[in-house]
Each structure stands twice: as structure tokens, then as C-alpha cells.
Design a protein that fits this description.
Number of helices: 36
Distance between the termini: 36 Å
Radius of gyration: 31 Å
Mean pLDDT: 90
Strand content: 15-25%
């Protein structure tokens, strides 16, 4: 930021700085206006990085010159009228490459590394320019994309159009640019830019406060801001306090740690958000911190003892115990890198020994992971009772990620987790004691257990920065021995401090036992794999070696056949990895306390016993509990577990309106009254895994190419294109239907993907394809993830058959407990054999069942064509498992709508849905690879235009009649299109009383005046409650809305996929992105947003807090997620 002749000039640095911290913007304005001095700060590493960056740019320019490109360099480093005019002159002249282009518009300025001329018309003529930026980092960060967006915006002011793509050239790329689509980020950029401008203008008017931010760690103002917070005794100094709690306490005039420490909860206190117990905990935490501060010495106190948590989760010390810590850099490549595995042990001489194992690339990352796991298993053989102690959940998570990423040591890691070998001392500590610390970090707890570090945190941070810079810039040689030595010593400090903490906790345990406390040791885990599993794993490993023996490790060096073989090899064990994730999730849930279960969709907390409502003849009670309002997926009928994991019973009833739950207990749990519960369900997909194994066996013996069995599976792996010779290329939707039917019916083998965006008639098309196939005498199978989806396509097929005069009978293997009687055209199978026999004797031509049926060995080639519905939600592994049932597979679906559910960590490319695999990163299927249904019968053009731009590469249009659709009201929704209803609220996570009230008023405004809507045929209809769908991201918010509108069509996004209404209302509930209980990926999911908005025929209404559009995105992926919401705010009418 610079004050240029009384005007503040803003640059990309100011844009990124404001995104990181609004208080930083205020400080920078004061510095620019010379009312505040900037603190001294010198980082020699920054100068080094600048020099390396300039060298990289020079190397790229030399690369262009060597290719014979024309280069024009704009001299100087400033952005003056002279350099700006020189840049414009070079553009007008049509120069091929312009280096260090100076761009300026109003207060914003920038110097773009390189402009490249492209053949896209603009105000300049039959050409325009795109931007290329040279960056040192291996992985492009959010700030880089934001900077490029600013340059693209400035460039558009000169040439009259924005560039379609932005490019980044990294040192490791052989000068091949990484491409970013500008429209995927532009709306988000414009929002950040506008917010930065407002913040600059308000400096001196609205005071900002130095709230703690992630950016503080690297900010030159960190000490000043920290000093101010301490002088203010700010509530953020209380360990574990949340922003929501700080806000609510402020409403009670509690603004300091001291005030909180002496506060008494009002009688009947019920917080707006969270549970009473969570406020009791922060109050107690503040009290002990203030007491210790005033006493001048450390203090701690024991928490109430509970089985299987706290000190009861501490295993017996063992001479083989390992104390483990990982150093990592999450900005290296796509996944980050775990670059140092460090651990301490007691060696054969009885001395502490530290081991450091480094990884500076992917190959050595895999190697150090394998070496550590192998070391642990050798040590377990010598010391069967040993454990691995770590602090926090990162180390356990890293082992799971590396196991999945490299598909190695999976049994071993699984055994470590099931055997409860890993012990998280952070969890033990937080559930055992309350300490006078401002955070429960290892560094702060060291003062209690008496550990003194050998390396200062300052020296460690300098060395860590040097290491991460070398990794991120792919300049390994720059990482000196001294820096590595300091990082090793720092890591060793963490390992030894973990040992010291364990010993201190063990002393506390012994102390309390001597005082009579009933503290036990944790029950041993189970880690012996079954013989069947071991035999299967052995064969899978043999197949992997056979399949990839001639395949290059680097994906860039693989041809299509080799890539398919690699994919098959590493998807063979997909189901076991998913199984592990399911059980790991149970282990994670059972380690949570009652308060932590509040934020879990599988959990329910704040339970209070009310009464026993029933009792069996044997004395087994059914107990009723009240619970706090919260977001949960629990619906009744599930088996439940208590905190700690013990089985509790079964939910016989749950009412979210009355906030009561009834639990039928077991004999063992009859006297136990839980404060929190969670559910966990597991269905073994062993048939699917066996089917994949048979596919692997065939390919290993016969190869992946050629005709023969498993043709559809092999074509799917190869991404083989279907022949388009039998279809016309016209683009109207009638032709699209006939093209689909013609192409599907002409196939004799292979895979046909049909992508159907919202309202394009995917099921309509699929049903008519099935009818045509039956007319040709073919047997057709239908599968999907759920019985409901299968039944829907069966019903559509029967409707089409009646309309087209096709004689067919369907059979379905329904879900358990189905009592629906057979009809003349739809039969329900009692057993799997019923389905097989019906297909064989041709009493049924169409069979519907989930993948649990079609993957069975006896289902091999039982049908001619298998139709996979909602293939964007079915995993590639499961589609490969069922594809053996037919030589031809049709994939119906849309990966831009709801995604496939998955929990495991899988090798690259194996964790996607079948359609995602074929789209290969694109939003739409290519015209030579499948069929894209590009005309919607549902959405008004104003709605369709937004959906098409954001989610379908501008390929989706509305059928002509859709422009007739409109809402004819005298209320606030006055016509067709997109609307935005802002609602102010703060601190809301998964539900919002304010938004629920606003939705009720909005619906009343629409219904109470008896208004009408017009369908695409021009018919006017009175708007009824059935013409309005109300969609929410979270179940807790659904319940809030249902309280106010009990007869309305209300539900989550999942409930309404495939449905439509004249008006769709999407209420977001969450106040800000940082309040989102399931993270940004869920709250801003483009798939879910697409589904919600595209339910609307006439009007879509987004109900949300304005703060939801103020998102601090750190990565390009996060910017992509937020971009559609920001674009919506630009094109919608504000109510």
C-alpha cells in the first residue's frame, strides 16, 4: 500500500493481507498515511526467495526466447503513468509476450510477470492477452490465484474482456503452465476486493480489533497485537473458548478473563448455542487461569473420573514404549509431505535414544513410513505390551493417510489402530486435569511435567521455515545441515517432552489410586486378523505385483493401458480400506467426551434422564432422556454406544420437536444414564471385494485389452470411448433423447456414460432406453446405491412401457421388511435366487437390485445391459464390482450433483465415483466420450444461466417454454429468477432461529395473498405449500423450520434430489464460514448448492447471513467452493 499524491494505491499484497486479517488493513493504512510506524522486521529468507523468484522468471523468459518467441520487456519496477502507457502501447502493437506489464485502474495497481497474446477477439482487435505468473512454490496457493485475478481484472479494463484462463509456471513443471479458469474464482475475487476497499475507506471511522488469526504466526505486527490482547485481558486467552462463547459472554457484559472467572451462571441459564456444560467448563478454565496468575505459580486440578477416559485411558508403562512426533509441510504438492519421522525409545543400554528419519520427496516419504511401521512391529514382537505415545491426533491421521496413499503396510497400520497401540496424550490430559494454561499445547504443559527444551522456539521456527521453503520451492539443496540439525533437535524435544508428560500423568494416576480413586487401565485392543483376511490380502499383494510389474511409478510416464492397470491394482483393496475407515471412525467417536459429541452428526449430547417409560419381563428398561437441540443424523432404530464406546442399547423413539429420545437398554447398561451417545453401523461388503478380486485375476492372466469377459469393467478402467457412428450430432433435446436410445441400443459391449444435469430428464431417458433394449429382446439390470433410487427408475420404466406399448415385467430385490404385494408388472423377490431364475426363464426382463446382489459370483453376465443409476454417487470400485453382470454398462447420473459417500483414504484416482473417473476433472462429459443432456425442462432461463455458468461450463440451456414460468405475486418475490434474503445473526452453527423465522415470514408472504405461478405451458396455478420446497444443509435447521412450518416440504439437500417446485428456498443457517460444524467443504459444497438452487422452476431464494460471503480462503480449492455463492450474490435480487 502506498500513498501516491494523496491517493492510496492498492496492490495484490493489500488484497491478500485484508483476506488474512482486517486489522492488518487498518494498520497498513495508518502506515501509508504516516500516522503509525511499521515495526522493524527483517527476514533474510525473504530476500533469498525474491532472488530465486527473479531467477526463475528469467529462466522462463529464456525458455520462451529459445522457442523463438517475441519478448517485450517493460522497464522499471514502479507502476507509473510511463510504465502503464508503455504496457498499453505494447498490447496495441500486438506484441507476442509482454514481460513485467504495468497495469492500473483507479486505485488498484499491479505488475504482471508475463502477458501472452491469444487468438480471442477484444477491443485490441482479433487478439487479446492472458496472464502467466512465475511462482517458486510447487503447489499454487490461494494468494497467488487472488493476485492473478486482480491482474486479470486490470487487464480486462485495457482490452475490454477478461482472459478465460490464468496460468502459473512452477520450477518443477518443465515450463508447462498450470491452468486456472478465471470464472471459477472471479466472483470470490470481486467480493474480497470490494471488502478491502470498504475496509480502507473506514479506517479511522470503524475501529478494528486484533482478534487472533492464523496469519498472526507470520505477521510483523504479531507482538503488538499480542501485547494489546494481554493488556485487555481478552477472553481469547481462556484455553478452549470458542468465538461463539466469547460473543455470548459479551452479551452478559463478560469481556475479560478476570470477569469470566468470577461470573456465576444465572439460574436457568440456557445458552443460545452449545450446552450449559460447555460454558461451565470455560468458566472453570478461566477461574484456574486467574487463580494461578494471581498466586504467581502453576495450578491444576483433577476432573471427575470416568471409565475409559482421562487417566483410565493410560496404559501400563512398558520398556518398549515409543514416543513419536512428525514434522510436515501441508503446502507441498497436492497432499503435503510428512518430511520427518522422529521417535524416542529406551535402547538396550537402558538409555533414551532418539531416531530421526527424513523424507524430502515422495519416494522417501513412502520409505520412512514403511521403515517406521516395520520398526514398530519388530518392537511389538520383542515388547508385546508396548504403545506409541503421541500428542494430538495428527500422527495417527498421518499414518492412515500414508497407508492409503501408497497402498502399503495397510494390515500393520490397521492392527496398530485396532490394537489401541497409539495413545494420544492430549486426549488423556484434557480428560484428566484442568490446568492453568492458555492452550493445552505440549509446549505449555511442559512446565507442569518439568521438561526444559534444548532448542528455543525462535531458532526452531527459523530452521523450520528454511526446511519448508526448500521443500515448497523444490530446492532441496538449499536445506542446509545446520537447519536440519536444529529441526531434529526440535523434534527430539517434542518426543522427550511427550515421554516426560506420560511419566507425569502416570505419577498423578498413582497418586490418586493411593488416595482410593477407582482408576483402571484401558482394556486391550484386538489386532489379530482372520485367516481368511490374511489369505485374501496375500493374493491381492500378489496380483498388485503382477499387474504393475511393467508400469512406471510416475503417472506422467504411464500410457492409457498402464494407467488402467495401476488403477485396477490399487482399487482391489478399496473395500478393506473403507472398512477400516468405518472402524476408525468408531474409535474416534468413542474417544470423544459428551461436549465434543455435540458437533458430531453421528452423536447426540446433553442427555438428561427423565423417566423409565417401559420395562420388559426380565427387567430391561426403556429410558427416556431429553437432549439439547443439535445437528445429528440419528433418526431412531439404531444401536447406540455410550461415551467411551460401550454398547448402550437401541433407540426405540426420537422426537426432535419434543427433544426426547427413548433408549431400550441391555441388562449390562440398565443402570447407566449417558450424557452423550453415538451411533455406528457396519455392513461387510465382502461380495464386492471378492468380485474385484476375480476381475484382477482375469486381467492378470489375460491382459486388460481385447474382447472377452469383463469387457465393460476393462473399458471403464481404460476410459475407452464408445463409437458415436450410430447417432446424429444435432443438439436439440428431442434429438438428445433419440441419440441416447440409438446409441445405447447399438452397443454390444463397453461403457456408455450419460450425464443428466437437473431437470434434463435423466430418468425419463433411462426408462426409454430400457424399454428399447427390452423390445430388442435384451435382459436389463438396474442398480444404484439405494433401493429407493432403483424403485424410482423401475416405476419410470413401467410408465414408459405402458406409453410405448412394450410388454415387460420387472423384478426387484427390495430392502428387508418390504411388505408391498406383487403386481402384474412388478414382482418382489424374496431371495437372490428368485431374481436369477426370473431372468433365466425370462419371466422378468428387467431386474433391480443394489450392488450387494449384482457383484455376486452367480450374477456374472446374467443380463445383457446393466444400468447404473446415480452413477455420480456410486464408487468406481463398486461399479467395477457389478460390471461383470453385463458386457454393456450404462452410467446414468451427474457428478455435479450429490457426491459419492466415502470415508477411506485411497491411492490417487481410486477414491472417486465411476462418472468422476470418466470426467477426469472436468465439469461435463466430452462430446466424443459420452452423452450430455444439455437442455433442462425445469429451470427458468434466469436460474438455468447461473447453474450452467457455475457448474456445467455454460453448456446447459432451458427448453423454450421455461421462459413462461413465473411467480405472479404482489409480495417480495415478484417474478422469475434468483433472490437473496439476508438475515443478520451471529454464532449460529447448524441451526438459526433467525433464518427459520425469516423463512416462515417469507412463506406466509407468498401464501397468504393467494398468489399464482405460471408453468412452462402458460397455465396459471394458485401457489400452495406443495409448490414450495425449503432446503437446509443441516438436520438441526430442518427441525427449526419445521417447528414454524409443520406442514411444509422441508428437508436437507439429500431429500430433494430429483424433485422440483415452483419456488425453492435454501436456508444456510450458519453465520460465518468459521462457524460451519462440518467445515467449508460441506457448507460451500458446489454439488449441494447446485442441487438446492436447481430444484426451482420459477424462483430460487437463498436465505443467509451476509457474513457467509466474507470467506477467508487459503487455497484455490476453497476459493472455488466459495465462488458460486459469491456469484449468486452478484446476480440475484436482494430482498
Amino acid at each position: 500500500m502506498k500513498n501516491w499524491q494523496g491517493v492510496l494505491q492498492l496492490s495484490a499484497g493489500d488484497l491478500i493481507g485484508h483476506l488474512n486479517c482486517d486489522h492488518l488493513t487498518s494498520l497498513n493504512v495508518q502506515v501509508a498515511n504516516r500516522t503509525l510506524n511499521q515495526p522493524d522486521s527483517y527476514d533474510p529468507l525473504l530476500q533469498l526467495l525474491h532472488e530465486r523468484g527473479q531467477r526463475h522468471e528469467d529462466e522462463y523468459i529464456d525458455h520462451l526466447r529459445n522457442k523463438g518467441c517475441q519478448i517485450t520487456i517493460i522497464d522499471g519496477v514502479d507502476i507509473s503513468d510511463t510504465t502503464v502507457e508503455a504496457t498499453k502501447a505494447a498490447m496495441v502493437a500486438g506484441n507476442e509476450y509482454i514481460v513485467q506489464a504495468a497495469l492500473k485502474h483507479e486505485r488498484w495497481v499491479g505488475r504482471a510477470d508475463i502477458l501472452r497474446r491469444v487468438d480471442t477477439p477484444s477491443l485490441l482487435g482479433d487478439y487479446s492477452y492472458e496472464i502467466i505468473d512465475t511462482k517458486l512454490a510447487r503447489e499454487t496457493k490461494g494468494g497467488t490465484v487472488l493476485q492473478l485475478c486482480l491482474y486479470a481484472d486490470l487487464l480486462a479494463k485495457v482490452q475490454g474482456c477478461a482472459p478465460e484462463h490464468l496460468y502459473v509456471v512452477s520450477p518443477w513443471s518443465n515450463f508447462v503452465p498450470q491452468k486456472f479458469r478465471f470464472s471459477d474464482y472471479s466472483a470470490y475475487y470481486r467480493g474480497v476486493k470490494s471488502a478491502a476497499e470498504v475496509a480502507v475507506d473506514l479506517v479511522g471511522v470503524d475501529e478494528t480489533y486484533p482478534e487472533p488469526k492464523t496469519h498472526c504466526d507470520v505477521c510483523r505486527w504479531q507482538r503488538d497485537c499480542e501485547k494489546r490482547r494481554r493488556n485487555d485481558d481478552h477472553l481469547c486467552l481462556v484455553a478452549g473458548i470458542s468465538k461463539n462463547q466469547i460473543k455470548e459472554l459479551g452479551s452478559h457484559n463478560i469481556n475479560t478473563t478476570k470477569e469470566l472467572s468470577s461470573w456465576q451462571l444465572p439460574e436457568g441459564f440456557k445458552p443460545a448455542k452449545g450446552s450449559v456444560s460447555s460454558f461451565e467448563k470455560v468458566l472453570a478454565q478461566a477461574s484456574i487461569q486467574v487463580e494461578a496468575r494471581e498466586a504467581g505459580h502453576l495450578k491444576f486440578e483433577f476432573l471427575e473420573f470416568a471409565p475409559e477416559t482421562g487417566l483410565s485411558a493410560l496404559p501400563e508403562p512398558n520398556p518398549g514404549d515409543v514416543f513419536f512426533d512428525i514434522e510436515s509441510d501441508q503446502f507441498v504438492g497436492e497432499h503435503g509431505i510428512e518430511y520427518l519421522f522422529g521417535y524416542s525409545i529406551i535402547n538396550d543400554l537402558g538409555e533414551n535414544e532418539y531416531v530421526a528419519d527424513w523424507a524430502l520427496d515422495r519416494v522417501t516419504e513412502k520409505a520412512i513410513f514403511e521403515r517406521f511401521v516395520d520398526f514398530v512391529f519388530r518392537r511389538r514382537q520383542e515388547f508385546p505390551g508396548m504403545h506409541i505415545y503421541h500428542f494430538g491426533g495428527y500422527e495417527a491421521g498421518a499414518l492412515k493417510r500414508l497407508m492409503g496413499r501408497y497402498a502399503t503396510r495397510e494390515n500393520e497400520v490397521d492392527n496398530l489402530l485396532r490394537g489401541l497401540v497409539l495413545v494420544d496424550l492430549l486426549s488423556v490430559t484434557k480428560n484428566a486435569i484442568r490446568a492453568s494454561v492458555e492452550s493445552y499445547s505440549l509446549k505449555q504443559l511442559e512446565q507442569f511435567c518439568g521438561y526444559e527444551r534444548k532448542v528455543s522456539l525462535h531458532d526452531a521456527n527459523v530452521a523450520l521455515t528454511q526446511v519448508t521453503a526448500g521443500l515448497e520451492l523444490n530446492n532441496i539443496r538449499s536445506i542446509g545441515d545446520e537447519a536440519k540439525s536444529i529441526v531434529e533437535d526440535y523434534n527430539a524435544d517434542d518426543c522427550y517432552a511427550t515421554l516426560k508428560l506420560r511419566d507425569w500423568l502416570e505419577d498423578l494416576r498413582n497418586q490418586k489410586i493411593s488416595e482410593g480413586a477407582p482408576i483402571t487401565r484401558p482394556a486391550p485392543g484386538y489386532d489379530e486378523p482372520s485367516e481368511e483376511l490374511t489369505a485374501q490380502q496375500k493374493r491381492i499383494q500378489e496380483l498388485i505385483e503382477l499387474l504393475v510389474q511393467d508400469v512406471p511409478v510416475d503417472p506422467a510416464e504411464q500410457n492409457g493401458e498402464q494407467a488402467a492397470l495401476w488403477l485396477l491394482a490399487h482399487i482391489l483393496d478399496w473395500h478393506r480400506r473403507e472398512n477400516k475407515a468405518v472402524w476408525w471412525e468408531k474409535f474416534r467417536l468413542q474417544d470423544l467426551n459428551e461436549a465434543e459429541l455435540y458437533d458430531e452428526k453421528a452423536g447426540l449430547s446433553g442427555l438428561n434422564f427423565l423417566e423409565t417409560i417401559a420395562e420388559s419381563k426380565t427387567g430391561i428398561p426403556t429410558d427416556r432422556y431429553s437432549f439439547d437441540v443439535q445437528d445429528t443424523d440419528i433418526r431412531g432404530g439404531e444401536g447406540v454406544h455410550n461415551v467411551g464406546g460401550a454398547k448402550l442399547g437401541t433407540i426405540s423413539n426420537i422426537s426432535f420437536e419434543e427433544q426426547i429420545i427413548d433408549i431400550k437398554k441391555s441388562k449390562a447398561s440398565a443402570e447407566i444414564h449417558p450424557e452423550g451417545i453415538f451411533v455406528h453401523k457396519f455392513i461387510d461388503p465382502k461380495e464386492q471385494a471378492a468380485s474385484l478380486l476375480r476381475l484382477g485375476e482375469y486381467v492378470a492372466e489375460n491382459g486388460i485389452l481385447g474382447e472377452g469377459p469383463y469387457k465393460s469393467s476393462r473399458d471403464l478402467l481404460l476410459r475407452s470411448k464408445v463409437s458415436m457412428d450410430s447417432i446424429s450430432v444435432e443438439d436439440d433435446n428431442t434429438t438428445a433423447l433419440s441419440r441416447s436410445i440409438n446409441l445405447a441400443s447399438s452397443l454390444t459391449s463397453g461403457v456408455l456414460p450419460i450425464q443428466g444435469p437437473p431437470g434434463t430428464g435423466k430418468s425419463f431417458t433411462g426408462a426409454r432406453i430400457i424399454c428399447e433394449l427390452v423390445r430388442q429382446g435384451k435382459r436389463v439390470g438396474i442398480t444404484a446405491n439405494s433401493h429407493k433410487v432403483i424403485r424410482n427408475l423401475l416405476d419410470k420404466t413401467l410408465e414408459a412401457a405402458a406409453e410405448l406399448g412394450v410388454d415387460l415385467t420387472c423384478i426387484q430385490k427390495p430392502e428387508m421388511g418390504n411388505g408391498e404385494p406383487d403386481s402384474s408388472s412388478l414382482v418382489f423377490a424374496k431371495t437372490n435366487d428368485n431374481v436369477l431364475v426370473s431372468l433365466k426363464d425370462e419371466t422378468a426382463q428387467v431386474a433391480g437390485a443394489t450392488h450387494f446382489f449384482w457383484c455376486r459370483e452367480d450374477a456374472f453376465e446374467t443380463v445383457d445391459v446393466l444400468v447404473v443409476d446415480e452413477a455420480g454417487q456410486m464408487s468406481l470400485a463398486n461399479v467395477l464390482a457389478v460390471a461383470h453382470a453385463a458386457q454393456t454398462v450404462i452410467l446414468l447420473g451427474d457428478p455435479q450433483q450429490l457426491e459419492q459417500p466415502t470415508q477411506g483414504t485411497h491411492p490417487d484416482g481410486t477414491g472417486v465415483s465411476a462418472l468422476d473417473h470418466l470426467l477426469n476433472g472436468r465439469q461435463t462429459i466430452a462430446s466424443d466420450e459420452g452423452l450430455f443432456l444439455g437442455v433442462t425442462y425445469r429451470m427458468h432461463p434466469k436460474i438455468c444461466s447461473f447453474v450452467s455458468e457455475m457448474f456445467y461450463e455454460d453448456k446447459l440451456t432451458s427448453i423454450s417454454g421455461c421462459k413462461n414460468q413465473s411467480v405472479n405475486t404482489r409480495g417480495i418475490i415478484d417474478g422469475p429468477g434468483l433472490f437473496y434474503l439476508p438475515v443478520f445473526h451471529s454464532g449460529n452453527t447448524s441451526s438459526s432461529v433467525e433464518e427459520a423465522t425469516a423463512v416462515r415470514r417469507l412463506v406466509a408472504d407468498i401464501l397468504e395473498t393467494g398468489e399464482t405461478w405460471t408453468d412452462r405451458g402458460g397455465t396459471q396455478k394458485v401457489i400452495t405449500p406443495n409448490d414450495i420446497v425449503i432446503i437446509a444443509p443441516y438436520n438441526a435447521h430442518v427441525f427449526e423450520i419445521q417447528k414454524r412450518l409443520p406442514t411444509a416440504r422441508v428437508g436437507t439437500v439429500d431429500k430433494f434430489q430429483g424433485q422440483e417446485a415452483a419456488i425453492a428456498i435454501f436456508s444456510m443457517a450458519t453465520s460465518t464460514y468459521s462457524d460451519a460444524p462440518r467445515g467449508m467443504e460441506f457448507l460451500y459444497s458446489s454439488n449441494r448448492f447446485n442441487v438446492a438452487i436447481s430444484r426451482a422452476q420459477c424462483a430460487a431464494v437463498l436465505v443467509a447471513s451476509d457474513n457467509l460471503f466474507d470467506v477467508n480462503c487459503m487455497t484455490p480449492r476453497q476459493m472455488q467452493l466459495a465462488n458460486p455463492f459469491c456469484r449468486y450474490s452478484e446476480v440475484s435480487k436482494r430482498l
